[in-house]
Design brief:
The chain has 433 residues and is an alpha+beta fold. The protein has 4 domains: 2-84, no CATH class; 89-196, Beta-Lactamase, CATH 3.30.450; 201-275, Signal transduction histidine kinase, dimerisation/phosphotransfer (DHp) domain (Helix Hairpins); 278-433, Histidine kinase-like ATPase, C-terminal domain (Heat Shock Protein 90). It has helices spanning 2-35, 55-88, 107-112, 124-128, 131-143, 198-234, 243-273, 286-296, 298-303, 323-340, 372-375, 389-392, 399-409, and strands at residues 92-97, 102-105, 147-154, 170-179, 189-196, 281-285, 307-311, 318-322, 347-355, 358-365, 413-419, 423-431. It has a 5-stranded antiparallel sheet with strand order 2-1-5-4-3. A hairpin with a 2-residue loop joins strand 9 and strand 10.
Amino acid sequence: MQIFLIILLLALLVIVSWHCRKLALGVEQIASALRSKEAPSPDSIDHVQYSGSLTSLKSALSNLLTEIDLERKLERRQRRFFEGMLNQIEDALIILDNQLEIRFSNQAARQLFASDLAHEGRQLIEVCLDHRITDAVSLALDSQNKTREELRRPVPHPAPDRATSDERHEHNYMIEAQPLIEKYGFGRGAWVLIRDITRQAETEQIRRDFVANASHELRTPLSIINGYLEMLDEDEGFNFNQASARRSIKTMRNHTERITRIVEDMLTISKLESNNQTLKTERFNLLNSINDSINRLSPVSAAQQATIKIESPQTEQMINGDHFYWDQIFFNLIENALKQNPKPGLTITISLEKIKKKIHIAISDDGIGIPSEDLANIFQRFYRVEKHHAQTIKGTGLGLSIVKRAVEAHQGEISASSQPGLKTTFTIIMPSA
């Protein structure tokens, strides 16, 4: 009997040991499967063979891993979505931790601070190489408030149409930094936004220059008119029939007409730059507009013994546009050539040619030309190639500005080239009707 009990106990012990061994192997395989991947998924434990006693555990664990896997995929989708949104922002955006280490940078930031290495995990100063940016972020973290600062820094890839000087290769930037809001789950750190405000700064500078130049241009004729009026007022025995009186009145009339034209040109530019301005588009022949301008300037060209020629393979060059502004374009360009070259014998050539559904217009003269350093500025308001011309060449200084804006309003392009002493050409490329 004792022997039977011993045998029975031994058998039970073997069975229990076998089940414990099987259970241990199953647990070890599950643990090994979970350890084999950084982010385990439900299929990690599908191959476990010794699962008889672990069916419930395996099922519960599989369900748990399935739930975790779904949450992980949802988190990845949300991250891709938010990263896609942030990459659409044109401004450079960088998210940092409390030690100014980069946790995220959008596409604009990666372009602004181009590097062969990824931004994530690196210090901000190592990426931007500008202590002014890191100082702004540090100030935001220390004060726990939003900071803002303007600065100028070089452009990583200067545009080919910009001048070669380092000054022209710098842009204005607005730096905004603010601490992250921890209660929303961001953790401690800050974000920094870098916005290129070069256009706004240039526009503001143009506005200031325009006001200053317009005031100067208007002040001169007004001072002359006021001087003549004071002279006439102080001379009690002044005879308006005298030759000097007639000269005074003629001078005042000329300067009044100049003021009127300045004001009209300023209004024209204002209309062209207004978003609400609508062109009165119609189909017309450009050659008619050119001939009208030549006829209006015929007294000036005759006095200077200038020759104006039109070269066009067709008798008609039709275009859809505002006839009024095209009259101003040709009038200003031809008048500008005459004013800049007052010596007799000037030849002005106007050529029109249709190339691949575009009309190419070239207005050339064989006068004194434009120095290369002035070519980039001739379309600016009140700009004169030589400052002493302000006294010898009368005009508002707005003609070429009106030409450029009128051409651009018609979806066209205008450029200028010059070989001093040989040839100056203004080229306009327009879509044909």
